[in-house]
Design a protein that fits this description.
This protein is mostly helical. It has one domain. Helix content is 75%, strand content 0%. Helix 3 runs antiparallel to helix 4, helix 5 packs across helix 8 and helix 8 crosses helix 13. 33% of the residues are buried.
Length: 371
């Protein structure tokens, strides 16, 4: 048994180690905070200059984002740790508990939660900028061009109608809709939480979050603004041609049989017409952020193992096809997104993970001298 003094000494040492570990983790993340602050400041300036401050979407994320990343996901993580300890360990459970509650483990969790709260403002800025893109460009300008390119690269067929002939109606259609509207979010944001809060991912944490932000900014703001388009679901509203995708959209249903995608599309268009901001508001098709974020995870999964990579990229293909079937995107939106994310991933990896020269390679300078 420990005396009261020994307990106090151990507790003070634990607190000191935790404080030091948190400071170390926050310091490692400092450039991420700088990037978030710069992006938010640039976004606010853009909104004010354009007279679109009413389109700010920050407050929309406070409740959901706080609940998700400060309460729900940390609770799930702790419960999974507890379940793993109970199932995996017997006489060594006390040691496992100490490790789960170690200063290093808790420092990653707490510093990660702080970073996620900063990303809440990042997400609010992204939505705010996305809301004003049609205003900045004078409407959706490239839907006809992108839809025509889609047919050309798909050997003369409308990809959405082609997929609807296989997936339209029935259980498979509901699975596709559920995955795109629900499972995708759990996978992408669950992966984000895991990477920023787990000691196991410390080596890729900064690079992963940097890529996460780049996908939103480059794909969802910059390129989306340059080649602004609305997507098949809104094609009739922005071009006046309501027949081109009418059959495909009919498959998605209406009334009681309306898919989640169709319902959300109506919600987004109502916000667009009213000029109001809402959770997840803003319409843009090219390139697909949905595909970009899941592709981001696939590239990192491939770094873990080839098997994980194969599974992850098969899921990317499924999400890409789903985005076309559900009327969110033209097929080319997904192709472009995958290409852009690949370039950013390998470019950032080369920048942040330079190849180290080793004596094992005799062709490298100095190898013979160090042998």
């Amino acid at each position: 048994m420990f005396s009261g003094l020994q307990v106090a000494v151990r507790l003070n040492a634990w607190r000191s180690q935790l404080t030091s570990a948190i400071k170390t983790r926050l310091l490692a993340d400092r450039w991420l905070y700088v990037a978030i602050a710069a992006y938010c400041l640039a976004g606010l300036m853009l909104l004010v200059i354009c007279g679109q401050s009413t389109r700010m979407a920050y407050s929309l994320y406070f409740e959901q984002w706080t609940y998700l990343f400060l309460f729900f996901m940390p609770a799930v993580a702790l419960l999974l740790d507890a379940a793993w300890i109970i199932v995996r360990f017997n006489e060594k459970r006390l040691m496992a508990i100490r490790r789960a509650l170690s200063p290093q483990r808790l420092a990653h969790l707490l510093a990660g939660m702080a970073l996620l709260m900063a990303l809440m403002f990042f997400q609010g800025t992204f939505t705010s900028i996305k809301n004003i893109l049609p205003h900045l460009r004078g409407g959706f300008l490239y839907d006809r061009i992108l839809a025509d390119i889609d047919v050309w690269v798909s050997f003369g067929r409308e990809p959405g109608l082609f997929l609807a002939s296989f997936w339209g109606g029935g259980l498979l259609s509901k699975v596709v809709d559920w995955n795109y509207s629900g499972a995708w979010f759990a996978l992408c944001f669950g992966a984000l939480f895991y990477v920023v809060t787990s000691p196991r991912t410390a080596a890729v944490r900064v690079r992963y979050v940097s890529m996460f932000m780049l996908v939103w900014v480059v794909c969802g703001n910059l390129i989306a603004g340059l080649l602004i388009s609305a997507g098949p679901a809104f094609y009739g509203a922005v071009t006046g041609d309501k027949d081109r995708f009418a059959d495909q959209l009919t498959v998605l249903g209406s009334g009681d049989s309306m898919s989640t995608a169709a319902a959300f599309q109506q919600y987004l268009w109502s916000l667009h017409e009213s000029g109001a901001a809402g959770l997840g508001s803003g319409i843009s098709a090219f390139p697909s952020v949905h595909v970009g974020l899941i592709a981001l995870n696939a590239f990192f999964a491939a770094e873990v193992s080839r098997l994980f990579g194969v599974i992850a990229f098969a899921y990317v293909a499924f999400v890409m096809a789903s985005s076309v079937f559900l009327g969110w995107h033209y097929a080319i939106d997904g192709y472009a997104s995958l290409l852009v994310v690949a370039v950013m991933h390998y470019g950032l990896r080369r920048l942040m993970c330079p190849v180290r020269k080793t004596a094992a390679d005799p062709s490298l300078p100095g190898a013979a001298a160090s042998a």
